[in-house]
Design brief:
The chain has helices at 8-14, 16-29, 36-48, 60-70, 88-95, 113-123, 158-168, 239-249, 270-280, 283-301, 330-339, 369-375, 389-405, and strands spanning 53-57, 77-82, 99-103, 142-146, 171-175, 183-185, 205-207, 214-218, 232-236, 253-255, 258-259, 307-308, 316-317, 323-327, 378-381. The protein has 407 residues and is α/β, with parallel strands linked by helices. The protein has 2 domains: 8-280, Type I PLP-dependent aspartate aminotransferase-like (Major domain) (Aspartate Aminotransferase, domain 2); 283-405, Aspartate Aminotransferase, domain 1, CATH 3.90.1150. It has a 7-stranded mixed sheet, sandwiched between helices. The protein has a 3-stranded antiparallel sheet with strand order 7-6-13, with no helix packed on it. Strands 12-14-15 form a 3-stranded antiparallel sheet. It is globular and about 70 Å long.
């Protein structure tokens, strides 16, 4: 049996008539950059995530950069980044001229908030930090922002992160590029407003991206909500921040050919807005199917001692962009599954501190033991809404057979 890692063609064929009509409408209107299809999508996506504002952008990486840029992150700033993530999270920091400060992950693959506090306090650079001696000068490097990632689709510990951000006067940008429709249950800390914006009530479920100062999403084709090319978005409830991001993302112009600031071209294409609007109608159904598929994987693999299946933390709704298990003899298992027609992935085999691109930061092997250990074990199994029960059972059966044959 053949089991692809994703199956974008089947998804397209299921909604082909709607997709083709939406693309044809863009062609008929020749609205290729932004335009009515993008505006429609922005309104719909913002409403789905319970935010006041949404701006369609050119990619997830650009969305992260746009958010940090609009918050004023720049040279001399330090931004907390989980070491276990795709490099785009750190790249957005580097593009601003700031320095990423890496923090290890917890057993749920997300930013470890205990380590986060240690790093902030040990650096003694956080704005308004109690540990700091003397006033902040323009020559100081300082932690000004936390950039949590909702990795693989599971929300990070946002209550603790926002609490720390408030204590140290830090900005929070949520990297929700893998977590469309993931939700987080509010804790008592949320009763406090942040920057005059209410965070919600205790027990309330909030969509990721709507909790920090701004959330960034990716619509790379393989994502839960995928465009037919590159695309992304930023969401926020902050009116002033929204206006600033809107200005920057279109060459700093509020009126055409009148540029208030030096910005960039981060505009979404009309085709992508049209495709995403069609797909948005199905995203909640697709998310539920991913969750069902994940439950079946977990049930079928529960007795395979060599495999640790993903856990969902209490008060979270996991959108399962990826189903990532920790497996003994991972590389051998991956090769074995490929021979059986099963395509798997590695997300991510090299933590950021061990990437050549960030060698200049001076980190070394052993600095982040949890992420390093996971990098040798994690294996992403096929996961998409169209994945059938028979295919999932075949994958689980072959995983079991691999370990059975090897004692």
């Amino acid at each position: 049996m053949k089991v692809p890692f994703v199956d974008l063609k089947t998804q397209y064929l299921n909604i082909k008539t709607e997709i083709d009509a939406a693309i044809q409408e863009v062609l008929d209107n020749t609205a290729f950059i932004m335009g009515p299809s993008v505006k429609k999508f922005e309104e719909e996506f913002g409403a789905l995530h319970g935010v006041k504002h949404c701006i369609g952008a050119s990619s997830g990486t650009d969305s992260l950069h746009l958010a940090l840029w609009a918050l004023g992150i720049g040279s001399g700033d330090m931004v907390i980044v989980p070491v276990n993530t795709f490099i785009a999270t750190a790249e957005a920091v580097s593009l601003c001229g700031a320095e990423p400060v890496f923090v290890d992950c917890d057993n749920f693959y997300n930013l470890d908030v205990k380590e986060l506090r240690k790093v902030i306090e040990s650096k003694q650079y956080a704005v308004n930090s109690k540990q700091r001696k003397g006033p902040i000068t323009n020559n100081d490097s300082r932690i000004t922002c936390i950039l949590p990632v909702h990795l693989y689709g599971q929300p990070a510990d946002m209550s603790e992160i926002i609490n720390l951000a408030g204590e140290y006067n830090l900005k929070v940008v949520e990297d929700a590029c893998q977590a469309h429709c993931a939700r987080y249950q509010m804790s008592p800390q949320w009763n406090k407003d942040r920057n005059g914006i209410p965070r919600g009530k205790h027990g309330e479920w909030k969509s990721v991206g709507s909790i920090g100062d701004v959330g960034a999403f990716s619509f790379y084709p393989g994502k839960n909500l995928g465009a037919y090319g590159e695309a992304g978005a930023v969401v926020t409830n902050d009116d002033k921040l929204y206006q600033k991001m809107k200005l920057i993302h279109d060459h700093g112009a509020s009126v055409r050919y009148h540029h208030d600031v030096a910005g960039h071209n981060y505009r979404m294409e009309g085709f992508q807005g049209a495709v995403l609007s069609v797909k948005l109608k199905y995203i909640e159904t697709w998310t539920a199917k991913r969750q069902e598929n994940a439950d079946l994987y977990t049930e079928l693999l529960k007795d395979v001692e060599e495999v640790i299946t993903p856990e969902i933390k209490k008060g979270r709704s996991h959108s399962f962009h990826l189903y990532v298990a920790r497996c003994r003899r991972r590389d051998e298992l991956k090769e074995y599954l490929e021979k059986k027609g099963i395509v798997t992935g590695l997300h991510y085999p090299v933590p950021l501190h061990m990437q050549k691109a960030y060698a200049h930061l001076g980190y070394k092997k052993g600095d982040f033991p949890i992420a390093e250990g996971f990098a040798d074990e994690i294996l992403s199994l096929p996961m998409y809404p169209e994945l059938g029960e028979e295919q999932i059972r075949y994958v689980a059966e072959q995983v079991g057979e691999f370990y059975k044959d090897r004692g």
